[in-house]
Design goal:
Elements: E1 9-17, E2 24-33, E3 40-47, E4 57-64, E5 71-73, E6 84-88, E7 91-93, E8 96-98, E9 104-106, E10 110-112, E11 116-125, E12 128-136, E13 141-143, E14 154-155, E15 161-168, E16 174-181, E17 187-193, E18 203-210, E19 217-220, E20 230-234, E21 237-244, E22 250-258, E23 265-271, E24 274-280, E25 287-289, E26 300-301, E27 308-314, E28 320-326, E29 330-338, E30 347-356, E31 362-365, E32 375-379, E33 382-389, E34 395-403, E35 409-415, E36 420-426, E37 433-436, E38 446-447, E39 453-460, E40 466-473, E41 486-488, E42 495-499, E43 507-514, E44 519-523, E45 531-535, E46 542-550, E47 553-561
Antiparallel strand pairs: 1-2, 3-4, 4-6, 5-8, 7-10, 8-9, 11-12, 12-14, 13-15, 15-16, 17-18, 18-20, 19-21, 21-22, 23-24, 24-26, 25-27, 27-28, 29-30, 30-32, 31-33, 33-34, 35-36, 36-38, 37-39, 39-40, 41-42, 42-45, 43-44, 43-46, 46-47
Length: about 575
């Protein structure tokens, strides 16, 4: 056996058995020349392990001075021809190599390393998941869906739910963690304290938040957010309340309504020189004072109605209202009259001016019932008493308002062979207009080129009164004929009723003629009834002449349009 020192030669004594004879040769000496071994293996790391716990490391071995081909092994059991070993995990390795002469050599020890384990930290900041990591090789990116990654690691405005948070480093190594977002929905309970008195801003709104993330802030009508959840000194009205939580979410409550008792108001009437107060609103019962000191529960005040006062009314909860009180009476009225045409009842009285008092007003004629309209129509000539009553019950009467009757309209005319010259007489005695057979009025009364025949001549005076005459034009012979018609209401504001008193007669055409003689309304599509309606709502106020053509002739009537 070799002595194991550094000798370059040595020998062994061995016993050898001869196979053919079975004899033994004892202590046979074998000389051995010991040569230097130059067969070497160099191992290197091609790829370190990429991820913690991974197995993608690679080692490459190079044989030197041996006799190829070589075989390689990292466990000295399983040999391969390829000098590359991949799919390795972290650890220490030695590469074993055999050459063609079955000479073995081993490499230098070599170590495969791996990055530190990636440690993922997940937290909830407001309504956002914040992810951070350490370990790995850096260059981290984060995702909650495995598709979209970002380097910030922040995922905002998330709904409640389970989220699988993934982090990857520059080597595409990953770590993940499940994170649950479970935040109650931000809400608030709104409590209101209504106003006690309508004229004092003492209402309040109290906000009690729930859910979301503390701390909370509050805003009234989109004003700056504040930490105080109580809003005070509010007037009655509709408000908007906003609640913002620590995560920045905002919930808005519109139509938060603060109510108050109705404000105290009053009306008054006079009774035998005393003032009667009718209070309303607030909370009954009421107390009354005209000096702010002495109060009484009785609403009948014995005061000088010609003086001005400061009226104070307090209610059952202590609300106090003051009013300037000045009693106003109706002291005068002005009226306009429309005289009647001869033997007709188409006069009218209009109250067009009131001095003093408190509206709305009502009107009465000759102690009749009161009405809201200031117009009295269909009046005959005579004297009338007009009474106006205001909202406080004070009354004023204008005595002796007179409606006169215009004289009867007559007609003078001259006739020649084909000419008529008409001249009105009576009536308003000026400004006559003339019409033949409803052909429109002219002012001169001169008509020529007339054949013999019957003509209906209408004369209208300056007051709008009309009278019709029948002229049988055969040389100088004439006949005057009148007709009967009932027109109401007159004055009229919207719908005029035209009624023939002769039930056997029927209307064929109705026209309204202005004071200038021009036709302003012409109706030809009428019913078979002897009662017709005419819409005058679009006509301007003024006097008009109603022309009615019937089966038995034509007739005229004055109409006053007044709205």
């Amino acid at each position: 056996m070799h002595s194991g020192n550094e000798a370059i030669a040595d020998g062994f004594k061995v016993d050898v058995q001869v196979p053919s004879t079975g004899a033994w040769l004892r202590n046979e000496y074998i000389n051995i020349n010991i040569l230097d071994n130059t067969f070497q293996v160099i191992a290197s790391v091609t790829n370190e392990v990429s991820c913690f716990g991974g197995s993608d490391g690679t080692i490459f071995a190079t044989a030197v001075e041996g006799q190829g081909p070589y075989q390689f092994s990292i466990d000295n059991v399983n040999f391969q021809n390829d000098p590359t070993f991949d799919g390795l995990s972290t650890g220490d390795y030695i590469v074993y190599v055999k050459d063609a002469d079955d000479v073995e050599s081993v490499s230098n020890p070599i170590t495969l390393t791996q990055p530190d384990e990636i440690i993922l930290t997940i937290s909830l900041v407001g309504y956002a998941i914040n992810a951070s990591a350490e370990g790995g090789v850096g260059g981290f990116e984060y995702s909650i869906d495995g598709i979209n990654f970002n380097a910030a690691g922040v995922f905002s405005d998330l709904d409640n739910g389970d989220y699988d948070v993934i982090v990857r480093d520059a080597n595409d190594c990953t770590a993940s963690g499940m994170f649950v977002v479970n935040i109650d929905t931000l809400s608030a309970q709104i409590s209101i304290v209504d106003l006690v008195c309508a004229n004092v801003e003492d209402g309040s709104i109290i906000v009690v938040p729930a859910g979301g993330i503390e701390p909370y802030e509050y805003s009234l009508n989109e004003s700056v957010f504040v930490a105080d959840n109580i809003f005070t000194d509010l007037s009655a009205g509709t408000y908007s309340i906003s609640v913002k939580d620590g995560g920045g979410k905002v919930v808005v409550y519109d139509n938060v309504i603060l109510l108050s008792a109705l404000p105290i108001s009053f009306s008054y009437t006079t009774d035998m020189g005393d003032l009667v107060i009718d209070a309303m609103g607030g909370t009954e019962p009421y107390m009354y004072s005209t000096n702010g000191i002495d109060f009484q529960s009785e609403n009948l005040l014995d005061i000088d109605l010609t003086q001005d006062y400061t009226l104070t009314i307090s209610d059952a909860v202590g609300c106090i209202y003051t009013f300037d009180l000045s009693i106003s009476f109706v002291t005068a009225i002005s009226v306009t009259t429309l005289d009647v045409c001869f033997s007709e009842t188409n006069g009218s009285i209009i109250v067009n001016g009131i001095t003093g008092g408190l509206g709305p007003y009502q009107y009465s004629i000759n102690d009749g019932p009161f009405q809201d309209e200031a117009v009295f129509g269909d009046l005959s000539s005579g004297s009338y008493d007009i009474t106006v009553r205001d909202a406080n019950g004070s009354e004023y009467t204008e005595v002796g308002v007179t409606i006169n009757e215009n004289p009867e309209i007559g007609l003078d005319y001259n006739a020649s062979t084909d000419t008529l010259y008409l001249n009105g007489i009576g009536g308003a005695e000026s400004g006559y207009s003339y019409s033949i057979n409803g052909e429109g009025f002219n002012m001169d009364g001169f008509f020529t080129d007339l054949p013999d025949g019957d003509y209906t001549v209408t004369v209208m005076d300056a007051a709008g009164c009309v009278e019709s005459f029948l002229i049988m034009f055969t040389d100088i012979y004439d006949v005057l004929v009148g007709s009967e018609i009932k027109v109401y209401p007159n004055p009229v504001s919207e719908i005029l009723q035209v009624e023939l008193l002769d039930l056997t007669n029927r209307v064929k055409q109705i026209s309204l003629i202005g004071i200038d003689g021009k036709i302003v309304l012409d109706l030809i599509q009428l019913t078979i009834s002897n009662l017709q309606t005419v819409d005058v709502s679009r006509l301007v106020d003024g006097l008009y002449v109603l022309y009615v053509e019937t089966e038995k002739g034509s007739m005229y009537h004055r109409v006053s349009v007044m709205k």
